[in-house]
C-alpha cells in the first residue's frame, strides 16, 4: 500500500503542477545554472567511475571531449504500449497488425548513449528498441534519487543529459536511477486510501508548500535588494 500511496501522491503533485517539489535538491537545480565540467574533470570522474564497474559498462572518453557509456532505465508504464508488427518495424507509421500489451514494472532496459544525448533522444531510443509505435511525447523520463533514507523522484527536463547525471552520481543505481513513465493525466482515486494516509498527504503538501513559499520570498527579496541598490545609485541627493 506504501508504494501505491507514493504513486498517488506523485500523481496528485503532477495534477497540481508541483512535480519539482518532490525533491528539494531538484528544485534548487531548476533555479541554478548548469555546472559544466572541464575536460580534465570529466576525465577524472570517468576514471573513478570505471574503477567501480565491469568492462562492459565502462565509460569511454573520446578525443573531442564527448564520452559514451551505459544507463539503465526502468519501464514503469501504467498503460499498454502499441508495438509495431514485424512488417512495420523500421517505420513510424502504425499498422493494422500492431498489438498492444502491458510491460511489467520490473522491466529494465540498458542503453548505450553519449554525453550529448538529451532526455528526448533517450526516450526515442527506448521506444525504438521496443518497437513502440506510440508518440514519444506521451512519455517522460524521471530520475529517482535517495536522500536520508527516503526516495525522491523528479521529472527531467528535455534539455538534461542523462549520461552526465549518471557520471556525476556514480554507477550506484541505489543512489540514482532512471525511470520511464507516461505523462500523468488521470485523476487519483483518493477513496482507495485510508484516513491516516490522506492526512499524511496533507501534512506533506503543507510542508512542501511552505518550503516553496520561503524559496520564492528569498528570491524576490534578493531582486528587491538589487533594484533598491540600483535606484540608490541613480537617485543620489543633490
Can you characterise this structure?
The chain is globular. The protein has helices at 2-16, 24-31, 39-50, 119-129, 162-169, 195-234, and strands spanning 60-61, 67-75, 81-83, 99-101, 108-114, 139-147, 150-155, 176-182. The chain has a domain at 36-183: Phosphatidylinositol 3-kinase Catalytic Subunit, Chain A, domain 1 (Ubiquitin-like (UB roll)), CATH 3.10.20. The chain has 238 residues and is of the alpha+beta class. The longest helix has 40 residues, at 195-234. The strands form two sheets. Strands 1, 2, 5, 6, 7 and 8 form a six-stranded mixed β-sheet that branches. The termini are far apart.
Please report which band the strand proportion falls in: under 5%, 5-15%, 15-25%, 25-35%, 35-45% or over 45%.
15-25%
Shape: globular
Rg on CA atoms, Å: 22 Å
Give me the CATH superfamily of the domain at 36-183.
Phosphatidylinositol 3-kinase Catalytic Subunit, Chain A, domain 1
Number of helices: 6
Residue windows where pLDDT falls under 50 for at least 5 positions: 14-33, 87-94
Helix and strand succession? HHHEEEEEHEEHEH
Mean pLDDT: 78
Assign the CATH topology of the domain at 36-183: Ubiquitin-like (UB roll)
Q: Please identify the top-level CATH class of the domain at 36-183.
A: Alpha Beta
Percent in helix: 25-40%
Give the structural class.
alpha+beta
The CATH architecture assignment of the domain at 36-183 turns out to be Roll
GO cellular component, one term: microtubule
Pfam family, one: Nore1-SARAH
GO molecular function: zinc ion binding
Domain SARAH: 187-234
Amino acid at each position: 500500500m506504501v508504494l501505491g500511496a507514493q504513486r498517488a501522491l506523485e500523481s496528485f503533485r503532477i495534477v497540481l503542477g508541483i512535480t519539482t517539489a518532490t525533491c528539494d535538491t531538484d528544485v534548487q537545480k531548476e533555479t541554478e545554472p548548469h555546472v559544466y565540467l572541464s575536460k580534465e574533470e570529466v576525465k577524472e570522474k570517468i576514471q573513478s567511475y570505471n574503477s567501480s564497474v565491469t568492462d562492459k559498462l565502462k565509460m569511454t572518453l573520446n578525443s573531442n571531449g564527448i564520452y559514451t557509456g551505459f544507463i539503465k532505465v526502468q519501464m514503469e508504464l501504467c498503460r499498454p504500449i502499441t508495438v509495431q508488427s514485424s512488417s512495420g518495424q523500421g517505420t513510424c507509421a502504425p499498422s493494422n497488425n500492431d498489438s498492444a500489451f502491458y510491460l511489467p514494472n520490473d522491466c529494465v532496459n540498458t542503453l548505450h548513449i553519449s554525453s550529448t544525448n538529451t532526455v528526448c533522444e533517450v526516450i526515442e531510443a527506448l521506444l525504438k528498441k521496443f518497437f513502440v509505435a506510440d508518440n514519444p511525447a506521451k512519455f517522460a523520463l524521471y530520475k529517482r534519487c535517495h536522500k536520508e533514507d527516503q526516495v525522491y523522484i523528479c521529472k527531467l527536463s528535455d534539455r538534461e543529459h542523462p549520461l552526465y547525471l549518471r557520471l556525476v552520481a556514480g554507477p550506484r543505481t541505489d543512489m540514482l536511477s532512471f525511470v520511464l513513465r507516461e505523462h500523468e493525466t488521470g485523476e487519483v482515486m483518493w477513496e482507495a486510501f485510508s484516513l491516516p494516509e490522506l492526512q499524511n498527504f496533507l501534512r506533506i503538501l503543507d510542508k512542501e508548500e511552505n518550503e516553496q513559499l520561503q524559496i520564492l520570498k528569498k528570491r524576490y527579496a534578493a531582486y528587491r535588494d538589487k533594484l533598491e541598490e540600483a535606484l540608490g545609485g541613480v537617485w543620489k541627493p543633490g
